[in-house]
Specification:
The protein is α/β, with parallel strands linked by helices. The protein is built from 25 helices and 20 strands. Strand 13, helix 16 (411-416) and strand 14 form a beta-alpha-beta unit.
Length: 616
């Protein structure tokens, strides 16, 4: 019997070893196959031929960002093999610019067809940069054609830069102006018996108002209206110039939409045509014939379209050449919420950024560093850690330049103040020099349910930050004193960095948010300019005439490309964008509005964050 059992065990051991071998062999084989496809796709993209008389389909997919991550740069064959969606979740602003510039000089490209149907969120400064490049492309005597079934407000801004705007007979254009509407939870928190303890410094530091009020404060209302009006006026001026429509006519089109629609029996497309918002009305069949007759090859029914992603394989992309024998200007992107730790999607990790700054400081060929910024702030501690490393870089004699994008506020400005020069666009939002601390306790909620917590401690602060206990008077006073110190530190950072007196700094602070134009007038920004101008300024301060540029990426590109990096909120947003109507999409985004509040992390629980994500 023993021998029989031993024989059975030997068989099972053999089968187990065989299964383990087969599993490892299969996994290794799959890995090698995927690796081979990646290698082939990376090199095959350059050899793919672009036919003559091709049309660049500028299909901007997902949100427009300063720097893409992981899977967005995978080749089409790899994406197909891995079952990844064809549509990217984000597109880099610089990739769009590079593609347009290359297409202008490429004899094989006859036109650009704007395909904006999958475009996500974008800032006004990003849209204006793309618009400027489209206008420059048209000067090469090539046409830009915009053709959509429906235009959102940001899509229409880009379409206004085209030679022709085409719309479907049953389509429409949604122009509504800019607005910022927050959800307020004070009464809801009261009904749930949640004590949200809020400490802040700055009358205009309105980041925590959604949990302390049921409506917008007068301070927030005044400052928000001021910068909204500036951004909206910029939008109107640009569209007015490109479409040869007066600002008054555009405003009346929106404000008197019901009366205007009555004149066309409710036909929105007819109204758009009469208002000179569009040039042609064509269904998909007619659109194909129009494109074929104007840009197609005789005798061929299909058009020679090439997508943005595929065309980029033929483009010498900016900031990618790295010859260490040449003088170099490094670019470090800061995009997302500033937090301690490592960078990830939507997070500026102080540890990661510090390591990149040190890399730039120790590299002899890097002569200056430009920080490309798109952040509303975050942890005050993490912001200061990054600023200190930036100061060490300056002490090495390497100029530090800030290039502000859509948003560079609060913790973002904390970092910026130490720079040798600050650039912003007219549409940048910056400032928000203030600080806050907020966290909930649930003792009332638990007591209401009949749950109680009791005990003893050795000091007055033994129950500190226990969410089941009320805050002790000693802790409340200590937190406010610490917050006051943090605010004075912020003021000192700005005062020293911008060469302002403390009184002047305090007058500009209090959490106020400014447009780039206003910030320049007040001395918080040096010049209105884009990334390229910031790079030129860095080179000038470093005393170099001939130089290359390199982007120091905060992401683990190979790992990210291979595995992806999707958060729950990313997934929710993607599903909502693809499957929900516009009102339901807004509801989903509203539900995610408070996400940054629960994401924040700081050793001292102090945050320099403006806590809003303004979209067009």
């Amino acid at each position: 019997m023993k021998k029989l059992l031993s024989g059975f065990l030997s068989i099972f051991r053999f089968l187990g070893a065989l299964l383990t071998f087969l599993r490892n062999f299969t996994l290794n084989l799959v890995f090698l196959l995927i690796l081979a496809i990646i290698i082939v796709s990376l090199f095959a993209g350059k050899t793919e031929q672009i036919p003559q008389n091709a049309i660049l389909r500028l299909n901007i997919q997902g949100n427009i960002v300063e720097h893409t991550q992981e899977d967005e740069e995978l080749g089409a064959p790899v994406r197909e093999f891995l079952g990844l969606p064809e549509e990217a979740s984000e597109t880099a602003l610089q990739d769009i610019i590079d593609a347009i510039r290359c297409a202008a000089e490429d004899d094989r490209i006859s036109a650009i067809r704007l395909d904006l149907s999958s475009m996500g969120a974008a800032g006004m400064d990003q849209l204006s940069r793309i618009g400027a490049e489209l206008s420059a492309f048209r000067k090469s005597h090539k046409q830009v054609i915009a053709a959509e079934d429906y235009y959102t407000q940001d899509q229409y801004y880009l379409a206004a830069h085209a030679d022709k705007i085409i719309i479907n007979p049953l389509g429409g254009i949604h122009l509504s102006g800019f607005g910022l509407y927050k959800v307020y939870f004070k009464d809801a928190l009261e009904k749930l018996k949640i004590n949200y303890h809020v400490f802040r410094v700055g009358s205009y530091k309105t980041a925590v108002e959604p949990i302390t009020r049921n409506s917008m404060s007068m301070e927030d209302r005044v400052q928000t209206r001021a910068w909204l009006n500036i951004l909206w006026q910029n939008y109107l001026n640009d569209v007015s110039e490109k479409r040869n429509i007066s600002v008054e006519a555009l405003t009346n089109y929106i404000n008197f939409l019901p009366q205007n629609l009555k004149k066309t029996d409710g036909n929105a497309v007819a109204l758009a045509l009469q208002s000179n918002l569009v040039d042609l009305v064509k269904n998909k069949v007619e659109l194909h014939q129009y494109m074929k007759s104007n840009f197609g090859d005789a005798g061929e029914d299909e058009l020679n379209y090439i997508s943005l992603r595929r065309y980029l394989a033929h483009v010498d992309r900016s900031h990618t050449n790295h010859d260490q024998s040449k003088d170099t200007i490094a670019i470090i992107p800061l995009e997302g919420t500033i937090l301690p730790g490592k960078s990830s999607r939507g997070v500026i990790g102080s540890d990661t950024i510090v390591s990149l700054i040190r890399e730039a400081r120790e590299a002899s060929h890097i002569k200056a560093v430009v920080f490309r910024m798109n952040t509303g702030g975050g942890s005050a501690f993490a912001s200061e850690v990054i600023r200190q490393e930036m100061l060490a870089l300056k002490n090495e004699g390497k100029p530090v330049i800030i290039s502000m994008g859509t948003l560079a506020a609060s913790g973002g400005y904390w970092i910026s103040a130490a720079a040798d020069k600050i650039f912003a666009t007219s549409n940048t939002l910056t400032g928000s020099i203030g600080i806050f601390l907020a966290f909930p306790t649930f003792e009332r909620s638990l007591n209401h349910l009949g749950i109680y917590r009791d005990g003893v401690g050795t000091t007055n602060l033994s129950s500190s930050f226990d969410i089941t206990q009320p805050l002790s008077p000693e802790l409340k006073e200590s937190l406010q004193l610490s917050l006051d110190f943090g605010y004075r530190t912020f003021l000192t950072v700005v005062s020293q960095g911008r060469n302002l007196s403390m009184e002047e700094t305090e007058a500009l602070a209090q959490g106020r948010i400014y447009s780039g134009e206003t910030a320049q007038e007040l001395g918080l920004v040096d010049e209105i300019g884009n990334l390229e101008q910031a790079i030129s300024a860095g080179a000038s301060l470093a005393g170099v005439d001939q130089y290359e540029t390199i982007l120091l990426s905060p992401f683990e590109t190979l790992k990210k490309k291979f595995l992806g990096n999707f958060t729950l909120s990313d997934t929710i947003v993607k599903i909502s964008e693809r499957h929900l109507s516009e009102p339901l999409k807004n509801l989903v985004h509203t539900g995610l509005e408070l996400q940054p509040l629960f994401q924040l992390d700081d050793p001292n629980s102090m945050f320099a964050h403006c806590m809003f994500d303004f979209q067009l």
